[in-house]
Amino acid sequence: MVWLIPEGKLTPFITLILMWIITLISIYYGKKGKFSVRRIPGLDKIEEAVGRAVEMGRPIFDIIGMGSFTSIYAPQTVAGLSVLGYVSKLCAEKGAKLIAPQAAVDVMPVAVEIVRQSYAEAGKLDELDVDEQLPYLSGTQFAWASGIIGMAARLKPAANVMVGPFWAESMMFAETFARVGAYQVAGTARLYQLPFFAAVADYVLIGEEIFAADAYLTKDPIKIGSLFSQDVYKLVAIVLSVIGALLSTAGVKIIVDLLKK
User: Fold this and answer.
1) SS3 string of 188-240?
2) For the chain, which residues make up each domain, given as ranges?
3) Which of 22, 197, 199, 212 is deepest in the core (most CB within 10 A)?
């Protein structure tokens, strides 16, 4: 079979097979409860944010950003949707009013279905008003941002959860919700925006913490096992990079030659 593999594709092919094997082994041991996810304070505080909204009788906002499923920021959007599912589940169970303004036409139907399912599972589907709680504001960045800022000023929410891809509107949101006294949990993998969240929000999810959110919040052993396999890939990549750099410095090109095969 080796001669059927084009030149330069052998190493990627073997790597892919090894990744499958590692993933399957990780999921197997994940089901047995062998792995756990380190504590992420920002995700732990989401339940407190929902409880605060219930006690104060004010709504809680959940903003997933304006990313789409067809952009390079799709993984962040999916992470935001997983958090939305958790927040909507808590809101349905505890009686907090959820407000989740939408900006992407391809993401909105998924967000609506996630929230609808959460309310249905809690037996409170009749309490969900999609038009009011998940309004489509605009697909234009600052029109959408202005709409959310206006809603925050009028509704004065008790809390705000922001997880997903964010751009220049990040500081606008963080300052606005802080001004109305909202408790904030914010996270993104766009490093340019993290300082704005860190300066204002009560808790911040940094980078890959948002991608671990689904496994962390659901405690699903399969997802936790899959998450462990991803950490293995990263560790192997770091080790190979360090060894390769040291060997190349010494004039030994074995790692470089291996990657070319």
Assistant:
1) ECCCCCHHHHHHHCCEEEEHHHCCCHHHHHHCCHHHHHHHHHHHHHHHHHHHH
2) 59-217
3) 197
Q: Is 28 helix (H, G, I), strand (E, B) or coil?
A: helix
Contacts of 95 (CB under 8 A, 6+ apart): 54
Q: What is the value of pTM for the model shown?
A: 0.87
Q: Per-10-residue mean pLDDT for the chain, 261 residues long?
A: 64 87 92 86 94 96 96 95 97 97 96 97 95 96 96 97 95 96 96 92 93 89 89 90 87 78 70
Q: What is the pLDDT of residue 1?
A: 47
Q: What are phi and psi of 35, to 5 degrees?
A: -120, 160
What pairs with residue 187 in β-bridges? Answer: 163, 205
Burial class (CB in 10 A: 0-12, 13-18, 19+), 19: middle
E strands, the chain, where? 60-63, 98-99, 159-163, 183-188, 203-206
* pLDDT, position 26: 92
Measured CA to CA, the distance from residue 82 to residue 88 in angstroms comes to: 10
Residues 6 or more apart from 67 whose CB is under 8 A from it? 73, 74, 76, 77, 80, 104, 107, 164, 165
Return left, alpha or beta for 162; rule: phi > 0 is left, psi -120 to 50 is alpha, else beta. beta
The CATH T-level fold of domain 59-217 is: Rossmann fold (3.40.50)
**203-206 and 183-188 as β-strands: parallel, antiparallel, unpaired?**
parallel
Query: Which two tokens mark 157?
Result: 């929410």
Tokens coding 196: 């704005």
Among 156, 153, 186, residue whose Cα is nearest residue 171 = 186
Strand-strand pairing, 60-63 and 98-99 = parallel
